[in-house]
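Try this one yourself first.
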């Protein structure tokens, strides 16, 4: 009889301990955020012409997978416009400026037809393809092209996305190291209000 009561007491204690442990695991800790902030989204677009971008001397087979509806820019057109200082507006990051609260991740989605990079730079400048730079010096962060692992990590293939997180408070500059006129300024603040404020 005494042994039976001891067994029941042990069972109750064991079940109680399990219930407490489960409650601790399933409920968020006090003072912590219940959910992660919603990411800010940036979209990369372009209007590459498969017939001229997919030749061996440019990108090779399947380099360009045009996704626009009848809007095409040939490689020669793109190059000429970039050299003239009037780069094709169809190659762009949208939006060009983003304001986020500190801790908010950024998701960059490539909805274009060819690869791009979303590379953080100290200041905007040229990329690693001289013909597209309009005389601007290649910024150090873009040196070496895709042989540079730091750049390769920022590449976004067609239909894929890249997440950027952990940005410090202040202004951050991102550009495509292939098409250097594709640029975004990200401003990270402690708080983001509906109206601009002085809390930079």
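Now uncover the answer:
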């Amino acid at each position: 009889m005494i042994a039976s009561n001891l067994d029941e007491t042990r069972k109750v204690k064991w079940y109680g301990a399990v219930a407490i442990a489960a409650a601790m695991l399933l409920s968020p800790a006090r003072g912590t955020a219940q959910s992660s902030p919603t990411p800010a989204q940036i979209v990369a677009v372009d209007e590459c012409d498969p017939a001229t971008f997919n030749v061996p001397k440019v990108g090779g087979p399947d380099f360009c997978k045009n996704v626009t509806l009848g809007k095409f820019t040939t490689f020669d057109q793109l190059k000429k416009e970039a050299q003239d200082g009037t780069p094709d507006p169809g190659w762009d990051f949208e939006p060009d400026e983003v304001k986020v609260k500190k801790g908010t991740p950024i998701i960059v989605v490539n909805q274009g037809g060819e690869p791009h990079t979303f590379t953080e730079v100290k200041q905007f400048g040229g990329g690693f393809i001289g013909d597209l730079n309009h005389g601007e010096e290649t910024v150090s962060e873009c040196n070496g092209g895709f042989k540079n692992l730091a750049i390769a990590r920022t590449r976004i293939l067609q239909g894929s996305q890249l997440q950027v997180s952990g940005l410090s408070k202040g202004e951050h500059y991102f550009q495509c190291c292939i098409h250097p006129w594709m640029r975004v300024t990200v401003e990270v603040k402690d708080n983001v209000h509906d109206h601009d404020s002085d809390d930079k």
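Discussion: The beta strands are 40-45, 92-94, 97-101, 106-110, 116-117, 119-121, 155-156, 161-164, 170-175, 183-189. The two ends are 72 Å apart (CA to CA).
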